[in-house]
Amino acid sequence: HSLAVALLRLGAMVEQRSSHATTEFGSGCAIFAFFSVFVIALTQHWALPEVVPASAPLSEGFSADRARDVIVDLSACGVKYIGSLANERCATQHVKRHILGAAGPHADRVEIDVQSASGHFYIDFLGGL
């Protein structure tokens, strides 16, 4: 009788250790999978975009070189305070030229309206400023 009880206790201990090892392995796999997905997500989130040259078509996205060319053209107009010739004519012509250049072969379908305002208006929603 005591031998049977001892064997039952030994079998229970072996079974308990076996299920504990399986649980540890499953937990380790879950932690590894979580951190793998986390690292992949961070890598994709912080990845830098490819550099697009100015000669690339607009459909390839933003080009810092192309933007710099626009800024250089606009700064060539000089100081552009409101009402100045640089603001009213030079800057407007540069912006139009870049818009039409970006349109490429479809420039004939682009319609550009230039608005110019003069005078002042009462801003009652800001307390009459």
Envelope shape: elongated
Helix content: 55-70%
Radius of gyration: 35 Å
Structural class: mainly alpha
Low-confidence stretches: none
Nearest-integer average pLDDT: 78
Query: Which sheet architecture does the biggest sheet show?
Result: none
Cα separation of the termini: 101 Å
Please indicate the percent range of residues in DSSP E strands (runs of 2 or more): under 5%
Q: Give helix and strand order, one letter per element, not per position.
A: HHH
Please characterize this protein's 3D structure.
- The protein has three helices and no strands.
- It starts with a helix and ends in a 26-residue tail after the last helix.
- Helices cover 58% and strands 0% of the residues.
- The chain is mainly alpha-helical and 129 residues long.
- 0% of the residues are buried.
- The longest helix is centred in the N-terminal third of the chain and has 44 residues.
